[in-house]
Design goal:
The chain has about 80 residues and is α+β, with helices and mostly antiparallel strands. It contains two helices and four strands. α1 packs across α2. The relative contact order is 0.21. The mean pLDDT is about 95.
């Protein structure tokens, strides 16, 4: 299962664990992803999306349909057909 947000494109990044003695070992910072179902009344259908919590907050603010239109206008491929 890939750990990539379908809407924002957030993915794991790498960094270091830093101990008290300042030794550094590699680690990965994972995005906070959730699988969520949304109903789009304009299209009269349900969609299941794997998205980050920041994308969820944006959807709560704008609405799912407006957010998807905004991403489509930017040229982001979300995999969801709006027409």
């Amino acid at each position: 299962m890939s750990k990539v947000c379908q809407l924002t494109g957030k993915r794991p990044i790498s960094g270091n664990n830093v101990s008290f003695s300042n030794r550094k070992t590699k680690r990965r910072f994972m995005p906070n992803l959730h699988k969520k179902r949304y109903f789009i009344p304009e299209l009269d259908k349900w969609v299941t999306i794997k998205l980050s919590t920041s994308a969820m907050r944006t959807i709560n603010k704008l609405g799912i349909y407006e957010y998807l239109q905004k991403l489509e206008k930017k040229g982001v491929n979300t995999g969801i057909k709006l027409s």
